[in-house]
Amino acid sequence: MIGLDGACMDLIKAWADDGKLSTFEQLMKEGSYGYLESVTPPLTIPAWNCLASGKNPGKIGHYSFLQKAPGSYDFRVYLSLVKKERDIWDILSDYGRKVFVFNAPNILYAYKINGYMVAGFLCPSEKNLAYPKSLMEVLYSSGYVEGEKDAVRFLTASDSERSKMLKEQTEKQCKILFHLLSKDWDFGFVVFQELDGIQHRLWHRKDIVLRHYQHIDKKLKQILEKLEGEENETEIIIVSDHGFGPNNRMFLINEWLSREGFLKIRRGISFEVINMLIRTVKGSNALKIFRMITKIPCLTPLCQRLFLQSVKIPVIWDKTRAFSYGNWGMIYINLEEREPEGTVKKEEYERLRDEIIEKLGKISVRAYKKEEIYHGKYLDLAPDIVIEIDNYVNSVNGKVGYNKIFMPGFPQTGYHSKNNGTFIAWGSNIKRTFEANARIYDIAPTILYMFGLPIPRDVDGRILKEIFKDNAKIQKDEKRRIKEKINALKRKGKV
Ligand SMILES: [Zn+2]
Question: Which of 17-31, 125-139, 318-332 is the most confident on average?
């Protein structure tokens, strides 16, 4: 399974039709392909978590990379609040299949598995980057670890620097991928972030974006060539966590909540001064200053803290009924007994949610109650209202001090889109030139089906049976299935 963060099916189809992406064209001609619908809102976290588990955020408790801690106004890294869900590779590993997982964004810390694991790009330290530890040698020698440290440099890089860095990162990732492909494996998963990285900043420069899709196309060709030399037949599934679209405007959700009287912000002198400074030192100057600061190593943790602080706003809690955090378009009700300084009575909760949703509707912002889009045991952790703007291109920000509700999306000219993600399946059991659309929850059950393994009852997706040829050799021997189940239980010490 090859993950292409942010790969947009509309672009792939158009450029493959024009003969500009020969490997994608070949894979689609010889395989099944279509749109992959992401989660609402279409964020990298929890999208990869949903893809890997086949379950909606309500079941796994992951709503965004940083999410509100229960009973507190703090927001923390999601894995510090909820235990990691079991992903397809965990199930495959339990059944004795050899797996490798490389750069899955939902893996923050590598852990023991029947095979190899390199944590995703959000992994906070080298110490937890790889399992087994011996893998670190390859990560060092390929320059991969060095590259991971470039995260801050990347944020402040110029457009051409950014483009170059993204390509280099893919090159390094491919080196490690080829190393892992030479091992003994039944299932492998790798994620490349190149397309997401370039599209956020340069969606308006389709010439540059095309060059990155062509770069990935070339890498896919190399992967295919490598696999062709193998004894066993391989099936390939290409997936993205969300698609992409134009980021015409950004919705300043807390400005709106404040204007409508739902949120009260402390607008003291220091707040105004900071905002004036931000407004004066904007654009490239701010970038230059930020870049300068980030060059001083000891200041990097400070920058990270400042980033966390910048998504927080000075809320006067006892005068606030609803608020939002960060850039995720999630609204929390300041509910009595649930929040430290809750102001909204339980009996007012529904009426308030209706009122907010109705008022958002008047400015053409779509909003959902949490239970309309999520279900499961972790529904309590979900924001009370989730919003979507501009045909599911998700661009929302919790910043305040701009005195307007919408502002231009620039410098991010592209943003995640829910409906035009990528799905391609290729291999001897897969139908040729067949169009099949999928939901992000369908990938996990479909892969378990290909391995003939039982599918957890509570997955939210379905097996994409339509993509398989009628005579497909799916490993579904019932006896073997039972035997394997027993072995798996034995391994866990339950029998
Ligand atoms: Zn993403």
Answer: 17-31
**How far apart are the CA of 5 and the centre of ligand 1, in A?**
5
- pLDDT for position 294: 47
Question: DSSP code of 33?
Answer: E
- Which of 372, 393, 412 is the C-terminal boundary of a domain? 412
Instruction: Please state the pTM of the whole predicted model.
Output: 0.88
Last residue within a domain, chosen from 393, 412, 431:
412
Distance 46 CA to ligand 1 centre (A): 9
| E-strand stretches of 372-420 | 385-388, 396-397, 406-408, 414-417
Q: How many domains, in total, are found in the chain?
A: 2
**Structural domain containing residue 7:** 2-246+416-491
Q: Could you tell me the distance, in angstroms and rounded to a whole number, from the CA of residue 7 to the centre of ligand 1?
A: 9
Q: How far is the CA of 271 from the centre of ligand 1 (A)?
A: 33
Beta bridge partners of 166: none
Q: 349 and 215, same structural domain?
A: no
The answer to whether the beta carbons of residues 420 and 9 sit under 8 Å apart is yes
* CATH number for the domain harbouring residue 177: 3.40.720.10
Q: Over range 23-36, report the average pLDDT.
A: 98
